[in-house]
Amino acid sequence: MLSVKVSFSLPNPYRNEFVSLSDSEHTVAFKLDEGTNVARSDFVDLGVISSFEGRRLLGQFSFEYTYEPDRRVITVCGTDFDSAGSMCLTTVPQGTTEYCRQRSAGGGFVSDELAANPHWNYLTTLTPGLRDVFRGIVRTVSDRLIDALKKVPQLIVQVRKDPPEMSAEEHQQFLTVYRGGKFLGFHEPGRQYGPQDEIFTVDSVFGGEVTLTYGEAFANVIGSTNDPKIAGLSWIQLWANQFGTYPVVCTSYQSNGFNCGNSLVGGHVIGGTHASIVPQGSNSVWILPICIQHNNNDNVYMQALKYLKGIWLKNYLGS
Question: How would you class 43 by CB atoms within 10 Å of its CB: exposed for 0-12, middle for 13-18, buried for 19 or more?
Answer without folding.
Answer: middle
